[in-house]
From TrEMBL:
This is Helitron helicase-like domain-containing protein. It comes from the Eukaryota. InterPro entries: Helitron_helicase-like. Residues 11-168 form the Helitron helicase-like domain.
Length: 176
């Protein structure tokens, strides 16, 4: 919640890539540490864990090898994928097999409205006209996008939500 609050403030310092990576690593460390403590609680009832055991690298490695539950919070780990797979199967049992599949990807450097917004945010409210934006080099457009990933993610999220709202609408006309 704190990271989300920092990212959405008008102060744009929290949106630079280095700070984003720092916050992501911090959140990952917090999730792993809380999951490790839960994993150690389930080592066994008769097991006596001492301070020397915790400080021993061999003991920690053996616990990790025997109980990998703490990996559930790390994206792209086997445990994380297994949990997502279970969620997917539960969704399919509840709603049935999907009848359509759609893959979306962002084209930030091609969206003029987004580029205008990024330019305005970077240059303290100074707006850019369509002609100047059209003449802007791709490198400068990519730099605008790379410097403010938060705004790009929020913009893409809003576009996807709008698309889903249209697709889920009962009033939509048939496109076929």
């Amino acid at each position: 919640m704190q990271a989300t609050s920092e990212l959405r403030r008008t102060d744009r310092r929290a949106t630079d890539p280095q700070h984003l990576l720092y916050v992501a690593a911090k959140i990952m460390r917090q999730r792993v540490s809380s999951s490790v403590s839960v994993a150690f609680k389930h080592v066994g009832h008769d097991t006596k864990i001492t301070k020397e055991n915790i400080q021993s690298e061999d003991y920690i490695n053996s616990c990790i090898e025997s109980n990998l539950a703490f990996l559930r919070c790390i994206p792209n780990s086997a445990w994380y994928s297994a949990d997502r797979k279970k969620d997917l199967f539960a969704t399919m049992r509840q709603f049935g097999a999907p009848t359509a599949f759609m893959t979306l990807s962002a084209n930030e450097t091609g969206w003029t409205d987004l580029l205008k917004l990024l330019y305005k945010l970077k240059n303290n409210g100074v707006e850019i006209n369509d002609e100047s934006l059209k003449d802007m080099l791709y490198v400068h457009k990519a730099q605008l996008v790379n410097e403010d990933g938060v705004t790009c993610a929020i913009y893409f999220n809003k576009l996807v939500n709008s698309l889903l709202r249209i697709l889920e609408s009962k009033k939509r006309t048939s496109i076929w």
